[in-house]
Structures are given as C-alpha cells and as structure tokens.
C-alpha cells in the first residue's frame, strides 16, 4: 500500500534551517507530483509547495517563496523540503502528500 514517511523536523531558532525528507513507497513515485503541506495549531492545513513528477515545475505558497525549496530524487523515491530563514510563523506539523495519500507528519518548531 501507499506509504509516506516524513523525517527531519525539530526545534530550530529563528533564521535557522531544516531539511525535511519524505520517503515514499507503494506506488510509482517517478510519475507522480508530490506536495508538502503544513498545519499550525488552530489553523487549517495549507499547501506549502508542489513539485511535478520530473521536478521541472514547482509551486510555492507566497509565505515561503524565496525561503523554501522543494526537490526530489526519483532514484530514491524521496521528496525534500529545504527550509531556510525560518520564522516562528513557520511552526507547524509538516505533511508530505500524493493525491489523497498523507504521511504522519513531522513537527517543526521555530523558537528562540
């Protein structure tokens, strides 16, 4: 079955960086677009970034554009989210998704 496993979250100071990873299995990764979402406490889940199957097309939410980079390695069935210049408002649980499938999420906390 489809499995998405996120890792790489943690506690980081404002201005710091983290790289999230999402290991995928159970489907043909290389032909699927992949997404990163996040959900902060008391807020709705929001789309952060999307990458096309080949990596040639990427979308970013306005709130992260210029600070976050989505990438993928189709040989490793893994999608990444490089997060730089982190702000306290980036604190959330970050989820990897493909169509209706979701991972369990990884917590990112930005605080001094």
Explain this structure.
With 112 residues, the protein is mostly beta strands. The protein is built from no helices and 11 strands. A hairpin with a 6-residue loop joins strand 5 and strand 6. The protein starts with a strand and ends with a strand. The mean pLDDT is 97.
Describe the oligomeric state of these chains in a short phrase. Answer: single chain
SSE ordering? EEEEEEEEEEE
Q: What is the rounded distance between the termini?
A: 40 Å
Radius of gyration: 13 Å
Number of strands: 11
Tell me roughly what share of residues is in helical segments. Answer: under 10%
Total number of helices: 0
Mean pLDDT: 97
Summing up helix and strand content along with how strands pair, one would put the structural category as mainly beta
Morphology:
globular
Overview features:
112 residues, globular, 51% strand, 7-stranded mixed beta sheet, mainly beta, 4-stranded antiparallel beta sheet
Secondary structure blueprint with pairings:
Elements: E1 3-7, E2 10-12, E3 18-25, E4 34-39, E5 46-51, E6 58-60, E7 68-73, E8 78-83, E9 92-98, E10 101-102, E11 106-110
Parallel strand pairs: 2-11
Antiparallel strand pairs: 1-3, 3-8, 4-5, 4-9, 5-6, 7-8, 9-10, 9-11
TL;DR?
The chain is mainly β and 112 residues long. Helix content is 0%, strand content 51%. Strands 2, 4, 5, 6, 9, 10 and 11 form a 7-stranded mixed β-sheet that branches. It has a 4-stranded antiparallel β-sheet with strand order 1-3-8-7, with no helix packed on it.
């Amino acid at each position: 079955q489809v499995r998405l496993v996120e890792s790489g979250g943690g506690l980081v100071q404002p201005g710091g960086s983290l790289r999230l990873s999402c290991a995928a299995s159970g489907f043909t990764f290389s032909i699927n677009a992949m997404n990163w979402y996040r959900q902060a406490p008391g807020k709705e889940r929001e789309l952060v970034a999307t990458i096309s199957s080949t990596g040639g097309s990427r979308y970013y939410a306005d709130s992260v554009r210029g600070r976050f980079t989505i990438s993928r390695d189709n040989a490793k069935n893994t999608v990444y989210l490089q997060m730089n210049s982190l702000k306290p408002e980036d604190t959330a649980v970050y989820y990897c998704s493909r169509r209706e499938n979701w991972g369990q999420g990884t917590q990112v906390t930005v605080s001094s």
